[in-house]
């Protein structure tokens, strides 16, 4: 019976992935001019693959809308508890019939107290609209959404970018503009992930200044031909202790698929996997500071 359910779920997703794709964007609302930058000493970051609100269940299409809402209340509580300045989300649904018919990003933003959102919908058809998103308490600038080339039979993935102004403790004469990226790569094929990385590098290589890339890369750092290793080298990004134990984010085998990468000029001070079960992925939380050595 378990194998039958897995095969059935895969066939349903395969069918849905082959339906027409439409790109939809949702922009961050404007905040009052008095509240336009972050002044915390450390920039607090969180990334989470939301799994379409199903928590650790096998398929959101088998859940009632009220169950998905209850699951997202738990997600919002964990994100609020983290005290993050900016949150990156993946598998984040707009209003979709397969996951309760309500916008998950707006729901989380309201529940957790993050008034500014930017939501890129990369996969869209009659059943679903979902993608990646960014949440903050201050306005994003220079927002941009990119959907990768279709990768049938899997659903289209992509990334969003938003810039935030950060002046730690108000000590700088001019705030630093930090570019934040939320990304989700294909799970099924290394060749597709590599092509998606190349698309992303082509865009991000043109962006100047400090950058943080967060998301579900669907790969680890274990081999030299890893798409994650390739990506980090292409853009000179750093990860926290690439081979450290205790930082797995998905599955019984302890795969570390969810990552935070930072550019030169930034430094990690804390990094941890959040233990609450709010998805089939664990959230990752980190704090960074400006690197005085730069």
Structure notes:
This protein is an alpha+beta fold. It has one domain (2-290): Endonuclease/exonuclease/phosphatase (Deoxyribonuclease I, Chain A), CATH 3.60.10.10. Helices cover 23% and strands 29% of the residues. The protein has five helices and twelve strands. The chain has helices at 2-17, 65-82, 104-112, 190-204, 227-235; strands at residues 24-26, 43-49, 86-93, 116-124, 129-136, 141-147, 158-166, 176-184, 211-216, 258-262, 266-273, 284-290. The strands form two sheets. Strands 1-4-5-3-2-12-11 form a seven-stranded mixed β-sheet, covered by helices on one side. It has a five-stranded mixed β-sheet with strand order 6-7-8-9-10, with no helix packed on it. α2 (65-82) packs across α3 and α4 (190-204) packs parallel to α5 (227-235). The longest helix is centred in the first third of the chain and has 18 residues, at 65-82. It is globular. The relative contact order is 0.16. Mean pLDDT is 89; it is low at 1-26.
CATH topology: Deoxyribonuclease I, Chain A
Q: Give the tally of β-strands.
A: 12
Largest sheet: 7 strands, mixed
What's the pLDDT, averaged over the residues?
Answer: 89
Quickly count the helices.
Answer: 5
Using the coordinates above, name the CATH class.
Alpha Beta
* Oligomer kind: single chain
Based on helices, strands and strand pairing, what is the structural class? alpha+beta
Instruction: Summarize the amount of helix as a percent range.
Output: 10-25%
CATH architecture grouping: 4-Layer Sandwich
> What is the global morphology?
globular
